[in-house]
Amino acid sequence: MVVTNNVVLPEESELTVEEVNLSTATLRAGSFHLGKYCENQNNEFMLCRFEEQDPRKCINEGKAVTACTLEFFRKVKKACLAEFNQYANCIDKSSGEYSFRYCRKTQDVYDKCMLENLNLERPPFGYFCEVRVHDTKRPKPPVEEKAVYPDATPALPEDAEKKPARFGSRFYWMTE
């Protein structure tokens, strides 16, 4: 994309949304359930970004992802706050790289709470790597035809004299 005077940038008011102001450990603790809860909005946003090739056209889809994330964490706060905080604290304090492996017991307690209170099961290992077809109501953007340019230099005629290279072949490995 070439930036010219014709490029229209969105106003700041269009870009302003309530942010998800959470720590890394908190986001990692809720990541699996969040991914499953907001799967449709995330897929819609990623499809828009891939098809449109212009992030300005996907602002509303991005806002939907942020709103879904906020809604998810508000529900977790109402239903499973103690279990979630225990799990997030374990992830934060147990290793320098926020590893899940040291926190399986608190994860199990949190997963059971999410299943009982929000009816949201933790997705199985590899769930987000599986291929799925996303059905969207947004129309597919028109495909831009590639520009065809006339050949600036015509080819040599077949009967043109072709002198040998002055310093031997370019393919030096073939001449020895």
TrEMBL record:
<keyword id="KW-1015">Disulfide bond</keyword>
<dbReference type="GO" id="GO:0006120">
    <property type="term" value="P:mitochondrial electron transport, NADH to ubiquinone"/>
</dbReference>
<keyword id="KW-0249">Electron transport</keyword>
<keyword id="KW-0813">Transport</keyword>
<dbReference type="GO" id="GO:0005743">
    <property type="term" value="C:mitochondrial inner membrane"/>
</dbReference>
<protein>
    <recommendedName>
        <fullName>NADH dehydrogenase [ubiquinone] 1 alpha subcomplex subunit 8</fullName>
    </recommendedName>
</protein>
<keyword id="KW-0472">Membrane</keyword>
<keyword id="KW-0679">Respiratory chain</keyword>
<keyword id="KW-0999">Mitochondrion inner membrane</keyword>
<keyword id="KW-0677">Repeat</keyword>
<keyword id="KW-0496">Mitochondrion</keyword>
<keyword id="KW-0830">Ubiquinone</keyword>
<dbReference type="InterPro" id="IPR016680">
    <property type="entry name" value="NDUFA8"/>
</dbReference>
<comment type="similarity">
    <text>Belongs to the complex I NDUFA8 subunit family.</text>
</comment>
<feature type="region of interest" description="Disordered">
    <location>
        <begin position="140"/>
        <end position="159"/>
    </location>
</feature>
<comment type="function">
    <text>Accessory subunit of the mitochondrial membrane respiratory chain NADH dehydrogenase (Complex I), that is believed not to be involved in catalysis. Complex I functions in the transfer of electrons from NADH to the respiratory chain. The immediate electron acceptor for the enzyme is believed to be ubiquinone.</text>
</comment>
